[in-house]
Amino acid sequence: VSVAAVVPAAGSGTRLGAGAPKAFVPLAGVPIVVRAVDGLLASGVVDEVLVAVPAALVERARELLAGRPVRVLVGGAERTATVRLALDSLVLNSLSGKDSAHGGERLANPEGHAQIVLVHDAARPLTPPALIAAVVEAVRAGHEAVVPALPVADTVKRVAGSVVESTVDRSVLRTVQTPQGFTLAALRAAYAASDVDAIATDDAGLVERVGGKVHTIPGDPAAFKVTTPWDLHIAELLLERA
Ligand code: CTP
Ligand code: MG
Predict the structure, then answer these.
(1) What residues flank ligand 1, with Cβ below 6 Å?
(2) CA 33 – ligand 2 centroid, Å
(3) pLDDT of residue 92
(4) Of the four listed, 14, 86, 100, 194, which is most buried by Cβ atoms within 10 Å?
(5) pLDDT tens figures, 179-212
(6) Degrees (nearest 5) of the Cα angle 115, 223, 146?
(7) What is the rounded end-to-end Cα distance, in angstroms, of the chain?
């Protein structure tokens, strides 16, 4: 069973505010997207990677990722649109057997397209390869959708403006990370059933909307998303100690 990873890297990184799209910001000298892709490849369970970037940075991304089994394409205006484009490209490209960005060579799985798809944020550059392998393992074990999840440490309150309305029972809450893993069939069905401009903050959310069952496995704090300058600072410190 072949595994493809879709890496949404087409965001602008507004909250990071680093003066460049987040995926291209260096983290200890290596662009965030390169670290994310290399983590996927280091897991040993990913056969091909599709990276979706802003239109202006396609050539730059190809240079940065040269020599890896990676295809670069243009993303969309929202994360959901980016993943939809990449998913369409994954299926179309595999069916037509062409790969223009890779010297016309097929990347993987000559019989057809990958049967398992991971969607993994470029913005999670320190994700342990073992977590990536664990997600794939859970899909292989029969779960159609798998997300890494962590318990919530802080107390969570519902607010209206600055006023607290209630305290939420955090014991039933989880924060979820990527990679999220799916059977190709489940992820395609979820995207096919949702409106082209539907917006979800994660891919499993679309599977939930069509009644699919999403399985959780233990997440890893190191898979945190680099969102703010604080996160980038923490990531730099973690790499210094490694
Ligand atoms: N993403 C994407 N296409 C978009 C928006 C986001 O591929 N139109 C990707 C980002 O590149 C990132 C992941 O989705 O790898 C998670 O999104 P987020 O952390 O929100 O990144 P940005 O949208 O770039 O950041 P911000 O919301 O602060 O602008
Ligand atoms: Mg965003």
Answers:
(1) 8-15, 22-23, 52, 75-79, 82, 121-123, 225, 227
(2) 15
(3) 87
(4) 86
(5) 999 999 999 999 999 998 889 999 999 999 999 9
(6) 35
(7) 33
